[in-house]
Design a protein that fits this description.
Layout (H helix, E strand, L loop, with lengths): L1 H16 L1 H10 L7 H13 L3 E4 L6 H11 L4 E5 L6 H5 E6 L4 E6 L6 E5 L6 H13 L1 E4 L2 E4 L5 E6 L12 H4 L4 E4 L5 H12 L13 H12 L5 H15 L13 E3 L3 H17 L7 H12 L4 E2 L1 H5 L4 H11 L4
Parallel strand pairs: 1-8, 1-9, 2-5, 5-8
Antiparallel strand pairs: 3-4, 6-7, 10-11
C-alpha cells in the first residue's frame, strides 16, 4: 500500500511545482495568437531536454514563438539564418588573432545561448548541419584546443520550409533522429487571423512580455519531469508501438510491411517516454496515462519512420501509418 501514497505525494508536489506552466502560456499568449499546440510542444522540448524541428510555411510565427518563450523564461536567445555559404565557425565560433597581445582569443558563436533558432536548417550544407547537431548531442563545443560547455537550459529549434526544396540540403535520417519532436505548424483559424490583423492594425507596439520563470526554475522542473511515475504497462505500450513500426507483421499489421522502409530507433522509445512525462507535467499530473502517449506519438515518431516508394506512390504519410498502429496496438 506504500506505492499509491508515494504517487499521491508526487502528484501533489507536481501540481504545486507546475503552476508556472499556466503563467508561461498566459504570458506568451499576449503575443502569440492561436498556435497552442506549437507553444505546448516548445514547452515539452524545454522540460524534457529535447530539441525540436518545426516544419511550416513562412509567416506562421515560428521565430516569434521561440523569441517570446526566451523572454518569458529570462533566457538568452540567438537566431542563425542558415544559408548555403554558412561555415561551421559562423555557428560555434572561432579563434581570432590579437596582434597587440600576440595571442589568439576565442570569439564565441551564436550557439552559446539558451534558445537557439536555426532558421531553415536545410538551406546549409551537411558540414554546417553537423556542427550544430554535434553541439545538440554533446551540449559542448570545441574551439581550437578548448572545449566549452553550453549553458543549460539549451534548446535548439530548427525550422524547415516544406515547399521550395530546390537548392536545399535534406537532413539525413541520422540527424533528424536527434530531434525529440518534429512539429508541423498549421494555418491559424479565421477568428485567430482576424485577431492577428486587429493586433497589427492597431498600430501600437507588440505587447511586452515579462519573465515569469527563471532558467533555474526550468532546470528544477526538468528533474521533477523525470520523476513522473510511469507504470510498467505504459512502458510496454511504448515498446509495442515502436516495435510495430519495425516489425508490423508481428502486430497484425502485415499490410504496413511494404509501406515502411525503416522504423523508429531506441531513441524513439526514450523520447516518447520523456515527452509523455513532460506532457503529464504540463497537465499537472504526477503519472503518465496511455492518452499522454497517444498525444505525443505523432510528433515523436513522424520523422522516425521511413516510407518506401510504394507508400509515396499511394500518397500514404507517416501520420496514416501511426494512426493505424495506434488503432491496432492494445491500449493498457
Amino acid at each position: 500500500m506504500e506505492q499509491p501514497l508515494d504517487i499521491q505525494a508526487l502528484n501533489l508536489q507536481i501540481q504545486q511545482e507546475s503552476a508556472f506552466v499556466e503563467r508561461l502560456l498566459e504570458e506568451t499568449g499576449k503575443v502569440i495568437i492561436g498556435q497552442e499546440k506549437m507553444m505546448e510542444r516548445l514547452l515539452l522540448g524545454l522540460l524534457a531536454r529535447g530539441h525540436i524541428l518545426l516544419e511550416g510555411l513562412p509567416g506562421l510565427a515560428k521565430t516569434l514563438a521561440i523569441n517570446t518563450l526566451s523572454k518569458c523564461v529570462d533566457g538568452e536567445f540567438s537566431r542563425i539564418q542558415f544559408t548555403p555559404d554558412l561555415l561551421p565557425a559562423d555557428i560555434v565560433g572561432t579563434l581570432i588573432y590579437n596582434p597587440a597581445k600576440s595571442e589568439f582569443t576565442v570569439r564565441k558563436g551564436p550557439i552559446f545561448a539558451n534558445f537557439v533558432l536555426a532558421d531553415e536548417i536545410n538551406r546549409a550544407p551537411a558540414k554546417v548541419q553537423s556542427a550544430l547537431l554535434e553541439a545538440m548531442q554533446e551540449r559542448q563545443v570545441t574551439i581550437g584546443n578548448e572545449t566549452y560547455k553550453l549553458e543549460e537550459p539549451f534548446l535548439v529549434l530548427a525550422t524547415q520550409n516544406p515547399i521550395e526544396q530546390e537548392g536545399t540540403y535534406v537532413l539525413p535520417e541520422a540527424q533528424t533522429d536527434r530531434f525529440m519532436l518534429k512539429v508541423k505548424i498549421t494555418y491559424p483559424t479565421k477568428e485567430e487571423e482576424r485577431r492577428i490583423i486587429r493586433l497589427v492594425m492597431a498600430g501600437e507596439k507588440m505587447p511586452e512580455v515579462k519573465p515569469v520563470v527563471s532558467t533555474s526554475d526550468i532546470i528544477r522542473a526538468r528533474k521533477l519531469v523525470r520523476s513522473v511515475y510511469m507504470d510498467e504497462k505504459i512502458e510496454n505500450y511504448i515498446t509495442d508501438i515502436v516495435f510495430a513500426t519495425r516489425y508490423p507483421e508481428q502486430h497484425g499489421l502485415e499490410k504496413l510491411k511494404p509501406l515502411i522502409n525503416y522504423g523508429g530507433s531506441p531513441r524513439a522509445s526514450i523520447n516518447m517516454a520523456l515527452a509523455a512525462k513532460a506532457y503529464a507535467f504540463i497537465q499537472r499530473r504526477g503519472y503518465v496515462t496511455p492518452e499522454d502517449i497517444r498525444e505525443v506519438c505523432y510528433d515523436v515518431l513522424g520523422h522516425r519512420i521511413g516510407l518506401t516508394f510504394e507508400a509515396e506512390a499511394e500518397n500514404i504519410t507517416q501520420e496514416n501509418i501511426i494512426k493505424q498502429i495506434l488503432d491496432t496496438v492494445e491500449v493498457p
